[in-house]
């Protein structure tokens, strides 16, 4: 099964850095971000906020809601199959090689998306082959319509904050 990498890990692979200390890089990110935010926010909350607004972090974003997972599997790349990856939700489980943390209710987008974050020290997780559900490309549009009509799940509801308003996009 292919690896599911963190965005930070992908960035370093893209530039050819096969070995890097993800904790050192993460600390640099936190130090730079702290120049712009209050000190009372913890490291995990800051990383979760950065992740939800598109920055590269050592977190992999998952949801506890299967309908939200289906939305993400279908949204974007209409000509490619999507996938829903099922991972055990066990925090600090040595057998799986990662930790799972849930952000506090202070991140609106994370709350709407029912987010949890996987923290994998090696930069990726490798899901079991039998724990991946593939969504054929030709079904994605119909599934997005179903989710919007019957469950009120759409781009507008999943990304329901000012950052996603057209006036605030670059």
Comma- or semicolon-separated keywords:
170 residues; alpha+beta; 3-stranded antiparallel sheet; two-stranded antiparallel sheet; 37% helix; globular
Task: Describe the protein's architecture and organization.
The radius of gyration is 17 Å and the shape is globular. It has one domain (4-168). The longest helix is centred in the last third of the chain and has 15 residues, at 137-151. A three-stranded antiparallel sheet has the order 2-5-4. With 170 residues, the protein is of the alpha+beta class. The protein has seven helices and seven strands; from the N terminus they run E-H-H-H-E-H-E-E-H-E-E-E-H-H.
Summarize the structure.
This protein has 170 residues and is α+β, with helices and mostly antiparallel strands. The protein has helices at residues 7-14, 22-33, 43-52, 66-74, 108-112, 137-151, 155-158, and strands spanning 4-5, 59-63, 82-85, 99-101, 115-119, 124-125, 132-135.
Q: What overall form do the CA principal axes indicate?
A: globular
Largest sheet: 3 strands, antiparallel
**Strands, total number:** 7
Adjacency order of strands in the biggest sheet: 2-5-4
């Amino acid at each position: 099964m292919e690896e599911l990498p963190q965005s930070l890990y992908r960035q370093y692979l893209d530039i050819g850095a096969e070995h890097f200390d993800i904790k050192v890089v993460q600390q640099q990110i936190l130090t730079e971000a702290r120049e712009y935010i209050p000190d009372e926010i913890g490291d995990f909350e800051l990383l979760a906020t950065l992740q939800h607004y598109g920055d590269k972090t050592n977190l992999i974003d998952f949801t506890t809601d299967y309908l939200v997972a289906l939305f993400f599997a279908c949204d974007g790349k209409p000509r490619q199959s999507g996938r829903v990856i099922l991972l055990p939700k066990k925090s600090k489980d040595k057998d799986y090689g990662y930790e799972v943390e849930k952000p506090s209710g202070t991140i609106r987008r994370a709350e709407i998306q029912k987010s949890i974050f996987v923290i994998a020290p090696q930069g990726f997780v490798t899901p079991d082959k039998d724990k991946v559900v593939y969504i054929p490309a030709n079904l994605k549009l119909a599934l997005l319509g179903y989710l919007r009509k019957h469950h009120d799940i759409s781009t507008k509801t999943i990304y329901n904050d000012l950052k996603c308003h057209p006036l605030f996009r670059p």
